[in-house]
Automatic annotation (TrEMBL):
One function term, GO molecular function aspect: serine-type peptidase activity
Database matches in Pfam families: Peptidase_S51
Organism name: Bacteroides uniformis
PANTHER family, alphabetized: ALPHA-ASPARTYL DIPEPTIDASE, PROTEASE S51 ALPHA-ASPARTYL DIPEPTIDASE
Protein name: Peptidase S51
Assigned keywords, A-Z: Hydrolase, Protease, Serine protease
Top-rank lineage group of the source organism: Bacteria
Family of the protein in this entry: Belongs to the peptidase S51 family.
InterPro entries per UniProt: Class_I_gatase-like, Peptidase_S51
Biological process per Gene Ontology, one example term: proteolysis
Length: 208
């Protein structure tokens, strides 16, 4: 069964994840990938996300893609119980995942049934392609000068728009809807919402 939990701000919807997991999270190991945030001046959401996971009883193993060899990354991703990718620059994230072939490892693991948590950029790259984010400069693509294409993990057949209606992405989110509403299956979510996928079942839930 393919399972995903996609959100804009994990700390704001962590209670939904606990329900979504449908198992005791105590002692479960989660591979925590903060790579997308490396180019960002503001990174508070990384600490908040990690804290929320630890408060749920999980063991957080940080996997910074740019710092570890592919073999070590692969080993961690195969052994962990869950895979989590934080927010940040979508294009820099894709560049680094592709550079070491980690995108393919993650995709395979999720398709084998490992639960994937994608926050903001991590939610965007679950789609077939992140090209739709380029048109409104949602993230500065110049941060990823070696990225040759925007093909993503292709874990879902829709395209998430994170932070929909939330500052400072409100206008950009609305612009994406205007440009692609008739071309792509878009799912806009606010900071207080999450998309929960179990195979072909897709639910959008609001945090309390």
């Amino acid at each position: 069964m393919k399972r995903l939990f996609l959100c804009s701000s994990f700390a704001d919807v962590a209670n939904l994840f606990v329900d979504c997991a449908k198992e005791d999270l105590q002692g479960k190991i989660i591979a925590f990938i903060p790579t997308a945030s490396l180019t960002e001046p503001i990174r508070f959401y990384v600490k908040k996300g990690k804290k929320a996971l630890e408060e749920a009883g999980m063991i957080v193993e940080e996997v910074e893609i740019t710092q570890l060899p592919k073999e070590e990354i692969s080993s961690i991703l195969h052994k962990c119980d869950y895979i989590y990718i934080t927010g940040g620059n979508t294009f820099f994230l894709l560049q680094e995942l592709k550079r070491k072939g980690v995108d393919k490892i993650i995709s395979k693991q999720v398709k084998l049934g490992k639960l994937y948590i994608g926050e903001s950029a991590g939610a965007i790259i679950a789609s077939p392609d992140a090209e739709y984010m380029k048109s409104v400069n949602f993230d500065p693509i110049e941060k990823a000068p070696e990225l040759k294409d925007c093909t993503s993990l292709d874990l879902v057949d829709f395209y998430t728009i994170p932070h929909y209606g939330n500052f400072p992405f409100k206008k950009k989110g609305e612009k994406i809807v205007q440009l692609y509403n008739e071309k792509l299956q878009l799912i806009p979510i606010s900071n207080k919402q999450a998309v929960i996928i179990e195979d072909s079942n897709i639910q959008i839930k609001d945090a309390k």
